């Protein structure tokens, strides 16, 4: 009995000493305080160089940083290391910059090029004017865009590549410095993207090779007239469209087929992504991609060298469509065809046209209907009466081949409604004026009664 009690006591003491040893071994190694580590390494304070840039007189550069969605990236960079920003003056970005290049940077599809351009002006280290290399040597630094840039001194002027520092140490903060420069710095990759978009390889159209044409007078093949490079296709867009309701099939391709120098599929995908990012046009994108095959067809047309202007109804306008309007076979395609103009029109070109000519009728891909445009309240109005739509979001997407203009209603051809109403009226008028026909035997009997003067007794002979 005593043996069992002693063994139990020994077990308790062993467990007690083991617990004491574990506690004591943990005490000499205290963990560092959590408060000594920053909770958010990317967090910046009001004295940061990034805040100073947004509040500085370099307003256009600050706007471009916000449009390029770089605020979060720069916050992380400032939180991890110091930075040096080379800020072009506002005049260099507003008046001295090529308008085509500026339009290229602000297009939604060229967001990466804009981000690369802006990150090319930022170094991941703090370099003050006193740390600038002397005239006898130069320094190579890597920017946040992973491109290299050269710092040197020439004729007592501090230089960074092709730009001159005009305001050294314009803004100095503990985590960085801003130098004012007299011109914009353009990395080689962005310049190549711009040149590729502007070059003849990407903008010149190769005419689609259709079936050979025969001259009816000589019964010989017609020789195609020489067409300059970059000219639009000779065949109308209707001949290049896929077979569909009320649309003639495309001609048979000639030897070699059509040479597609355009990447129409990528351009259509780009403008559909722009619709989704712009917001308010998800239904339009869904119809083009999922409900119909119009996105693929538009890509093929653009690849053949044709241009398109899309009148895109917003989601509120699409929500007003009834089930009957969409239930008929081919109804979604016919509705969308009426919103596709086989021309390249921008908000400025359409407004100038309606200001000059009053009313302008544009061809659509829904033959033979046309959409009418006129000026209204300083904007462009499409259609007639209650079914008219206004230009709501101009120039959502413009790339030289496809133009997307947002409207606030779904358009329908007015000729269809007028034709149906006229047909109903004509039928009703004919029914009211029609008289019952009499048979030949009854006609002969009535003539005999007339001869005897007894026709008044029979109502059928009256």
Summarize the SSE layout with pairings.
Blueprint lengths: L1 H25 L22 H6 L4 H9 L3 H10 L2 E6 L1 H5 L4 H8 L4 H9 L2 E2 L15 E4 L5 E7 L2 E4 L2 E11 L2 E6 L6 H11 L1 H4 L10 E2 L4 E2 L15 H4 L23 H15 L3 H10 L2 H10 L4 E6 L1 H5 L3 H5 L3 H7 L2 E2 L5 H11 L1 E5 L6 E7 L2 E4 L6 E10 L3 E6 L6 H20 L6 H13 L10
Parallel strand pairs: 1-7, 10-16
Antiparallel strand pairs: 1-2, 3-4, 4-5, 5-6, 6-7, 8-9, 10-11, 12-13, 13-14, 14-15, 15-16
Helix pairs in contact: 11-13
Low-pLDDT stretches: 1-6, 24-42, 200-209, 244-259, 426-434
Please report which band the strand proportion falls in: under 5%, 5-15%, 15-25%, 25-35%, 35-45% or over 45%. 15-25%
What structural class do you assign from the helix and strand content? alpha+beta
Strand order of the largest sheet: 2-1-7-6-5-4-3
Mean pLDDT: 77
Spatial separation of the terminal alpha carbons: 140 Å
How many DSSP E strands?
16
Computed Rg: 38 Å
Main beta sheet: strand number and arrangement?
7 strands, mixed
Tally of individual helices: 19
**Anisotropy-based shape:** elongated
